[in-house]
Design goal:
This protein is of the alpha/beta class. It has 13 helices and twelve strands. A six-stranded parallel sheet has the order 2-1-3-4-5-6, sandwiched between helices. A six-stranded parallel sheet has the order 9-8-7-10-11-12, sandwiched between helices.
């Protein structure tokens, strides 16, 4: 039997952001054997600092991209097209032509949401724009979200049996540990909504404790806001936070080494999230996790089992969670082991690819 032809739209790194990482993992997965898999790169921005910024040159790039996509649809003739959709009005407007072109070519369209704000965005639109959005989504056959708790986002847009859950997942390996110092790590883009400043304020609170063992803190990530960076650096430059470092972005082998050298992982965003890759990678590295209840994070940070899931990134709450892990090696060990166990149960790359493949087959069928 011929394999169904599938077209996957999506960015590829760089920059190393969640959706681009997901696209790369899927293209390198078993789906390439299960389907006749094709990819169309929708990348426009070459760096994190360019994201969300309007440039007239981007309009020209988009025009050429739509034309190239139309030509590729004619050549490939896929049965299914997977279209990641944005969760801002402008971003979704940019995605609409892909949905239209794929649908007009006779393909079944699956829209995939890699965040959690789409329905909130919909509610902020006026009645006419809401109607238009529903009309455009009506050209799709199904929708994918990152967690069961996010299925509500597409209720009313699609039948319940056409809303699917495919959590993020990847297969990772880690080198031997080099650094032996007790270390807490943050690894994500350093954006105001990611909670880094509040985390640094939590470390200021911890500096007042006298019973803590010596430890280091490293925050890895790219910046897109000079003022925010200055605020964060001003905190770490204080004399009592000499153990706190902001070394900038890290990727490839250096990233896996940073996780291998860590004992605690903290990523506690205050803005809405999807299913952050950094938490999956840290769980794969068998680290206890501290995070906040945003998006689908609760599915791989289970409070009291493999870390602490906070309602908000309040510095006092983060400081207390960090203190518990810093003073208790056995708690770090048991929660880290639970992180690895959850990762192996739910969030490997094989599992993500298999779930996505099952969705495609059901939509084709």
């Amino acid at each position: 039997m011929d394999r169904p032809t599938v077209m996957l739209l999506g960015k590829l790194p760089p920059p190393y952001i969640g959706p681009a990482v997901a696209t790369k993992i899927i293209l390198e997965s078993e789906l390439a054997e299960r389907f006749d898999l094709h990819h169309f790169d929708t990348r426009i921005n070459a760096s994190v600092s360019e994201m969300g910024k309007f440039r007239l040159s981007k309009l020209a790039v988009l025009g050429r991209m739509y034309s190239a996509f139309r030509q590729k649809m004619k050549r490939v003739k896929p049965a299914v097209v997977i279209v990641p959709i944005a969760q801002t009005p402008g971003g979704f407007l940019k995605d609409v032509p892909f949905i239209r072109i794929a649908s007009a070519a006779g393909a079944k369209v699956i829209v995939q949401l890699r965040g959690s704000e789409f329905r909130d965005m919909y509610y902020r639109l006026g009645p006419w724009r809401q109607k238009r959005l529903r009309f455009e989504l009506g050209k799709a056959s199904a929708a994918i979200v990152l967690g069961d708790n996010l299925r509500y986002i597409f209720e009313g847009f699609f039948p319940d049996d056409r809303i699917y859950t495919v959590p993020n997942g990847g297969d990772f390996s880690f080198p031997e540990r080099k650094n032996q110092a007790l270390r807490a790590t943050y690894l994500a883009n350093c954006l105001p909504g990611k909670g880094l400043k509040e985390l640094l304020q939590a470390l200021e609170i911890l500096a007042e404790y006298k019973d803590l063992p010596p430890f280091e803190f490293h925050a890895y990530g790219s910046w897109d806001n000079a003022s925010y960076r200055a605020d964060c650096e001003a905190i770490t430059n204080r004399s009592h936070l000499a153990h706190c470092h902001l070394p900038g972005p890290v990727s490839g082998d250096a990233k896996w080494q940073a996780l291998a050298d860590s004992d605690i992982f903290v990523f506690a965003p205050k803005s809405p999230e999807g299913h952050p890759w950094s938490l999956i990678e840290a769980a794969a590295a068998a680290l206890p996790l501290i995070s906040t209840d945003r998006g689908a994070i609760a599915q791989n940070v289970i409070d009291g089992r493999n870390g602490f899931l906070l309602t908000d990134p309040e510095p006092a709450l983060m400081a207390e969670a960090l203190r518990k892990l810093l003073v208790d090696p056995e708690l770090r060990k048991s929660m880290g082991a639970a992180s690895r166990e959850l990762y192996e149960e739910r969030f490997t790359g094989v599992q993500m690819a298999r779930r996505l493949g099952d969705v495609v087959e059901e939509v084709v069928g």
